[in-house]
Amino acid sequence: MTSARQHLRAGRIVILGGGPCGLACANELDRLGHHHWTLLEAGSAVGGLASSVIDRAGFTWDLGGHVVFSHFGEFDQLLDELFAPHELLHHDRSSYIRFRDRWVPYPFQHHLHCLPQADAEACLQSLTHACQRREETLPTNADFATWLQDQYGSGLVERFFAPYNTKVWATSPEKMSANWVAERVAPVDLDEILAAFYGAKAPAPRWGPNSTFAFPSQGGTGEIWRRLGHRLGARVRTHAAAKAVNPTDRLVQLENGETVPYDQLVATMPLDQLVAMTTTTPSDVREAAGQLQHTTVAMVGLGYGAPTLDERSWFYFPEDDVPFYRATNFSKYAPANVPAADTTAFSSWMTETSVMPGTWVNPTALVKASDAALRRHRLVPGLAELVTSHVEMISYAYPIPTLGRDEALAVTVPWLEERAIYPRGRFGTWRYEIGNMDHAVKMGIDVARRLVTGATEELLSSTDNAVLAGSRS
Questions:
Q1: Model confidence over 235-273: pLDDT tens digits?
Q2: Kindly report the CA angle at 157 between 156 and 158, in degrees rounded to 5?
Q3: Are 74 and 437 in contact (CB under 8 A)?
Q4: Does the CA dihedral 246-251-253-258 come out positive or negative?
Q5: 161, 254, 285 from 246: Cα distances, Å
Q6: Dihedral, CA of residue 434, residue 437, residue 440 and residue 446, to nearest 10
Q7: How many CB atoms lie within 10 A of CB 404?
Q8: Cα dist. 124→67, 191, 195 in Å?
C-alpha cells in the first residue's frame, strides 16, 4: 500500500498522449489511489497508433495490421477487465510469404523445402556454411546486414531478408543496428531444417509470440482503448495538443494557449518532437534527438463486395512487383469489420507500404496498385467489386533501429528524466524491440508505479543494459 508521503512526492502527473502507454499509466495511477493526474491527447479520440476508424461505407480499419497478444500478465488482466470472454475472438496465426510463383509458410527460413529446387539448395548451402562459422564472434556493434549474413547466409539474405527488410524499413539493413533483433527474427536449427528438407520430419510448430492472437469482436483494435478511455473519465482530455514544455517552471503549454502545471510529466509522443518542444534543451540533446529516424506507412484499406476465399491471416511480400510489404485479411479477424458483419457479402484487406518521412505518396495510384496486386496473387476474386478504399498516412509508424540510435537515446533520455520528464511508449523510448501494444501498456504501468511507489520499471530495466552496451561499443 502506498503512503500519503509517496503520493505527495509524485504530485501532479500530466500524461501526454492517449495511446496504450498513456492510458495504461493513467489507469495504474487510479489503481494505486493516485488520482491527481491529467491526460492530454492531441486528437479527437484516444488510441494513438492502436486506433481504429470506420469509413463512409461502414468498413472498420486499424492503423496497420495489429493483433492482440501478450508477454505480460498486466496486459492480460486489463483485457479481462474490459471485455467479456465472448467479446474477444481468438485465432491461430496462418501467415505466408510470396516468393516467385508460390506461397512459402512463415517463417521463411524454416521452410526451405517449400522453395523451388535451385533456390532451396542455394539457401541451404549458404545457411549450412553460416551455421558452421557461428563460433566466430560478431562485434557488438554489428549492423543488421552483417548480422543477417552471419545468421542465415547469402542465399536467404538475397532472396528474402534483404529485400523484405528494405521494404519494411525503407532503409538499407547496412544502416541499421542488430541490437534490436531479440524475438523479432526467427532463429534457425539447422538439424530441423535439414530434416524438413529431406522429408524426415515436419517443420517446427509456429514460431513467435503472436502464433495465436485475439481480436475484439467489434470496433477493431481501437475498441480496447475506447473502453479504457471511457472508464478513466473526464481527466482524459482530447483536442489538447501540447505546444511547448517548460521544464524549469514545469508547465505544458497547449496550442490553445492554456498552460497545465505538472510535477511529473509522462510523455508518450515521439521523442524527437518532445525534445524539439522542450525549452532550455541544450544543443547536444537537440542534435542527438534529430538523428532519430522513423518510417511513415501508408495503410490502404480495400473493401470488396464479395466474401474472402482465403482463411489465412496475413502475407508478406518481399518482391518489387507488389507495392506493400504486408497484406492483412482483415475481415477474417472479426465479421464486424465489414458492413452489417456480413462476411457472405463483403470482405476487407489492409495493406501497408513503408516510405521515409516527407515522401509524397499518390493515394489514388497506391489504391489502384494495391488492389491489382491482391487480385494478381488471387487473394481477392478477380471479379469482386471494390466497394470502398480508405488510405491512412501514419506519419510516425515504426522507429528505425539505426546504428546511432542507442547513442542518441543515451544523450536524450537521461537529460529529460533529470527534469522529471519520462518518455515512454513506442516512440517515447524509440525502441522497436519493445514497440508492441503489450509493451506500451507495461511501460505505462511501470512508470506509474515508479512515480508513486518508487518501484523499478521492470520492462525498461530489462532492456537498458543492452541499450547502454550498444551506446558504448
A1: 999 999 999 999 999 999 999 999 999 999 999 999 999
A2: 95
A3: no
A4: negative
A5: 44, 11, 15
A6: -100
A7: 16
A8: 32, 11, 12
Residue type at 73 in one-letter notation: G
HSE-CB for 457 with a 13 A CA cutoff: 22
Interhelix angle for 144-156 vs 162-169, to 10°? 140
pTM over 0.85: yes
Collect all residues with Cβ–Cβ distance below 8 Å to 1 and sequence separation of at least 6: none
Residue 70 C-alpha cell reads as 501478450
- Residue 446's identity, in one-letter code, is D
- 345 phi and psi angles, rounded to 5 deg: -115, -20
Q: What's the rounded Cα separation, in Å, for the pair 49 and 465?
A: 27
| Sequence-separated (6 or more) residues with CB below 8 Å from residue 259 | 251, 252, 253
Instruction: Cell numbers for 224, please give them.
Output: 480496447
Residue 89 to residue 6: CA distance in whole angstroms: 41
Q: What is the pLDDT of residues 303-349, one digit of tens each?
A: 999 999 899 999 999 999 999 999 999 999 999 999 999 999 999 99
Closest C-alpha to 274, from 410, 427, 394: 427
CB 268 within 8 A of CB 424: yes
Does the N-terminal peptide bond of residue 107 adopt cis geometry, omega within 30 degrees of 0?
yes
Instruction: Quickly list DSSP for 284-326.
Output: HHHHHHHT--EEEEEEEEEEESS--S----EEE--STTSS-SE
